[in-house]
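Late entry, written up from scratch paper. The run itself happened at the end of the previous shift, but nothing got recorded in the book at the time, so transcribing now.
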Amino acid sequence: MVNLSSITKMLPLIIPIVLLQLGLQIFALVDVARREKTKGPKWIWVLVIVFGEILGSVIYFIFGRDE
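Output as recorded:
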């Protein structure tokens, strides 16, 4: 069983990662919504971003944007 003190010790590491993930997801979702064309259907990229967590957003920025 996980001890409460071990969780509080990990919070300084977990909070920045969660904030980074949320920031990337919001930025990627706004980018998908504003972009006219993407490589593939937009709804698939939304699913990749939402369910792929940090890697989903990175994958979208590398492969999904049609510039």
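DSSP finds three helices and no strands in the chain.
(Scratch paper discarded after transcription.)
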